[in-house]
Amino acid sequence: MGNGDNILELIKARRSIRRYQKKGVPKEPRLVYLVLMILGFCAVIFVYLKYRSLFFASLGPEEWEPLFAPLESTLFSLLVISFFGLEIICYVIRFFKNTHWVNLAKNGVYLIVLLFIINFPITEAFTDYSISDPLFIAYGIVRVLVFILVIDSIVILVNLVRSSWKKWI
């Protein structure tokens, strides 16, 4: 009725404009998340340096039992460490250039590495433990990750097309 109603309408309009403008750009990176990512990366490096693996069938107080054979354990552990490193590098790049292209390139690298893992012959990689079917579990996890990355890449491509479409109109 009075001046207060106009102010509320103005605030609502500004919120909707802000939401509309931010759809073409990913969320701004935050320094707190970068610090947490670096701390997690250091924890993963510590576990790898202490046990020479990131994959365990069991961890006992006296000794640990690896899930994979030594060569495959090292390979897959280094792949996981490289995933963490790539995530940190891409997050730092987003501080300077915050576009969907960074996330799309990161997903492309992840997909290439996961496809390498799918095609890697790991029939003899698992040590003999009482896991029902380790190959089924491992390939199931990798396929779920590939599915999530493909869906995320499609969403990123739709956002890129949407943001570039606005420039042409």
Supply the key terms.
mainly alpha, two-stranded antiparallel ribbon, elongated, 169 residues, 4% strand, 5 helices
Task: Describe the protein in words.
The protein is mainly alpha-helical and 169 residues long. It has one domain (27-168). The protein has a two-stranded antiparallel ribbon with strand order 1-2. It has helices at residues 3-22, 31-51, 70-96, 100-119, 134-168; strands spanning 56-59, 64-66. α2 runs antiparallel to α3 and α4 packs antiparallel against α5. The relative contact order is 0.11. The protein is elongated, with a radius of gyration of 22 Å. The mean pLDDT is 78. The chain starts with a helix and ends with a helix. The chain is 73% helix and 4% strand. It has five helices and two strands, in the order ααββααα.
* Spatial order of strands in the largest sheet: 1-2
Low-confidence blocks of residues: none
Question: How many helices?
Answer: 5
Say how many strands there are.
2
Structural domain tally = 1
Shape: elongated
Output mean pLDDT.
78
Sheet with the most strands, sense and barrel status: 2 strands, antiparallel
Strand and helix order:
HHEEHHH
**Spatial separation of the terminal alpha carbons:** 37 Å
Structural class: mainly alpha
Helix content: over 70%
**What is the radius of gyration computed over CA atoms, rounded to a whole number of angstroms?**
22 Å
- Fraction in beta strands: under 5%
